[in-house]
Amino acid sequence: MKRWLFSALALVVAISFTAPSFAASHAKTLRITLQLPLKHHLGQNLVNFQKEVEAKSNGSLKIEIYPSAQLYKDKEVPQAVASGAIEMGVASIARFAGTIPAVDIFYVPFMFPSNKQVRKATAPGSPLRGPIDEAILKTGARPLWWQAFGSAILLSKGGPLKTPADMKGKKVRVFGKTLGDFVSAVGGAPTLMSGSKQFLAYQRGTVDAGMTGLTTIPSRKLYQVMDTVTLSYHADIEFLVLINEKVWQGLTANQRSIIKTAGMRVEAELRNKMGRLEQEALDFAKTKMNVVGLTDAERAVWKKATTSVVDNYIKRSGDLGKYLVKIANEL
After folding, report:
1. Residues 6+ apart with CB under 8 A from 80
2. Which of 39, 57, 109, 331 has the fewest CB atoms nearer than 10 Å to its CB?
3. Main-chain phi, psi angles of 63, to 5 degrees
4. Under DSSP, is residue 207 helix (H, G, I), strand (E, B) or coil?
């Protein structure tokens, strides 16, 4: 009897030591490619997601984050995720404009002039966001959550871009077709470029000016190569966290629930603190650069000079784009 009890106890001990390693070895690994440094707010948003998913899945899900475009450039992410080359990725919504031109609604100049309108437009399941998510899903990449990036501003060297005339003849870094139309409408020459290439492009003079979000100024050290910020706030920058649809369907119902819940939580968390993050970035920029604001009258001049962009957007994006403009105007 004693020998039987000893054997049973030994078996329990053996199982207790081997079970964790067995679970770890059979964990589902989801890799995420990110263009920005991990310290950027998009990177920290992923870290928060990673911690929650790994904790609540009891080790059945493992999240690996590859920041700073280690694996894929921004423009490569949608195809990489859709094809299954990588399980998950973060990409600017503008990167879908080639197949779904209507996603560029957020880059139509001054379409969302207030944070209140942005929040209504980007709310999960909103009449504006819903059709965009559905269209992207058809490409094979499922949007899990949206990451707020902030408002678009203008970077330049030697002086601000206060009027449309200031843009004339300048080569300008943009990150979408519609933003390119914005530059062209005021006489500039748009250059489509990934965010990770900005620093060298400004440093080498490949472009004269650029568009980006305030938070990239400190994270990408753009203050070292550009000296002026114009607070144009002409567009809302949104990023998407995507997962390959086949990978998603291959997860258990419980795993999908954990991922979805964590994604919605970190999305709301980031959206709620975006104002503070932008203010911190702006305060930092003021210590390193010349920061110039625009009056309502000056912004109205820019809007009038770029009205043709709205028409071009609708022509390019068809019925969906026309619908989204209507919804945006009703917000």
Report:
1. 33, 71, 72, 86, 89
2. 39
3. -105, 125
4. coil
Q: What letter would DSSP give residue 179?
A: H
CB within 8 Å of 222: residues ≥ 6 apart = 155, 198, 199, 202, 212, 216
In the predicted structure, residue 3 carries a pLDDT above the cut 60:
no
> Which one-letter amino acid corresponds to residue 146?
W
* Structure confidence by residue, pLDDT tens digits, 85-121: 999 999 999 999 999 999 999 999 999 988 999 999 9
CA end-to-end span of the chain, whole Å?
77
- pLDDT tens digits, one per residue of 117-137: 999 999 999 999 999 999 999
Class of domain 28-330: alpha beta
All structural domains of the chain with their residue ranges: 28-330
Closest CA to 139 of 32, 264, 258, 242: 242
The pLDDT, as a whole number, for residue 25 is 52
What's the predicted TM-score (pTM) here?
A: 0.86
Q: Which residues contact 213 (CB under 8 A, 6 or more apart)?
A: 149, 150, 151, 152, 153, 237, 278
- Strand residues in the chain grouped as ranges (E): 28-33, 61-66, 88-92, 141-156, 171-174, 189-192, 209-213, 228-231, 236-244, 290-293
